[in-house]
DNA sequence: TTAACAGATAAACTTGGCTTTAGGTCAAGA
DNA sequence: TCTTGACCTAAAGCCAAGTTTATCTGTTAA
């Protein structure tokens, strides 16, 4: 069992944030001893899941809904399974978007390397948009491709 | 040349957002004809870069700073190059984090598949935290590993 | 000529996720 | 005893990134 201050240090999360999560109902099983919160390993694992679901794009209120499903027992397995499936798809899609973003950034690094070497952007502008070096063209084209959702 | 409404449709961005970006100084070269904004291909490419920098985690004010650097000419090539280099690193790191998030989500999908098949979580809890099926253990361990920054 | 649009502005509002503030309880050490 | 520090609550505040609202202008179509 840990106090809120210990959890804050261990997990590197402000005390105010932990209290906020608690107020929002993200630790439905947390015990209290004369008013003082007692975090157990269960709550530490919950913090892991909160972090995961947050990064996957879920809002606090939806994380709360998940916690409530957990409290409902085995009847909510299907909903919970579906939630994770959906968030998995969302994160896969976001990683794809970020790969495209990355290719734009890589292109821009090449762009400025070249501009610095040349002292201007004239040569690059002559190559744009279709006569870039093969590898760079790939980055550029990927970065400028549309997503068909 | 395009009106704000045309750009909004083409790029699927609300008119209000385009005006907001303009107000924040993200289109320093945009022309106006008797008060009406005229978006050119330059502004469309700028929208691409705004999108890229936003996704990489940059705030509007920093994107504005970049636009100002562009207006300063070749003397700011090094700063611009450094900006893209930094954002590239930031996105690479974020993709790594998301890969870990993804492994947690995959683990949870397996978890609930198993719980649904068993009707309860007893068997899973016996396997936790170190006796999961090999492939699943990998997901679990990766998802629960600490980042040493 | 009048109504409907598309464009414009300034300023207020919204949202989510915290953080800060103000005020209070309780236990331990000087 | 008194003060320090960790805990508590409720409520207000903050911030970024838009969005909405109220009001105005100019063009076209019936």
Describe this structure in words.
Chain A is mostly helical and 149 residues long. Chain A contains 7 helices and 2 strands; from the N terminus they run ααββααααα. Chain A has a two-stranded antiparallel sheet with strand order 1-2. The model of chain A has no long low-confidence stretch (mean pLDDT 96). At the A-B interface, helix 3 and helix 5 of A face helix 3 and helix 5 of B. The first copy, chain A, binds a DNA duplex (30 and 30 nucleotides) through residues 3-5, 14-17, 19-20, 23-24, 34-37, 59-61.
Radius of gyration of chain A: 24 Å
Separation of the first and last Cα atoms of chain A: 47 Å
How many strands appear in the DSSP assignment of chain A? 2
- Give the largest interface pair and sizes: A-B, 37 and 37 residues
Q: Oligomeric state of the chains?
A: homodimer
Q: Please, how many helices of chain A?
A: 7
Order of helices and strands of chain A: HHEEHHHHH
Helix content of chain A: 55-70%
Give the class of chain A from helix and strand content and strand pairing.
mainly alpha
Summed over residues and divided by their number, the pLDDT of chain A gives a mean of 96
Specify the overall morphology of chain A: elongated
Order of strands across the main sheet of chain A = 1-2
Strand proportion of chain A, as a percent range, falls in: under 5%
Low-confidence stretches of chain A: none
Largest sheet of chain A: 2 strands, antiparallel
């Amino acid at each position: 069992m840990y106090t809120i201050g210990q959890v804050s240090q261990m997990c590197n999360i402000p005390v105010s944030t932990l209290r906020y999560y608690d107020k929002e109902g993200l630790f439905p099983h947390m015990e209290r001893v004369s008013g003082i919160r007692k975090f157990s390993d269960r709550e530490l694992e919950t913090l892991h899941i909160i972090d995961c679901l947050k990064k996957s794009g879920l809002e606090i209120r939806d994380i709360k809904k998940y916690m409530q499903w957990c409290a409902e027992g085995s009847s909510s397995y299907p909903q919970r399974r579906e939630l994770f499936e959906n968030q998995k798809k969302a994160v896969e899609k976001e990683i794809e978007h970020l790969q495209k973003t990355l290719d734009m950034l890589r292109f821009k690094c090449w762009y400025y390397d070249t501009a610095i070497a040349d002292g201007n952007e004239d040569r690059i502008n002559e190559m744009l948009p279709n006569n870039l070096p093969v590898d760079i063209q790939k980055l550029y084209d990927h970065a400028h491709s549309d997503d068909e959702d």
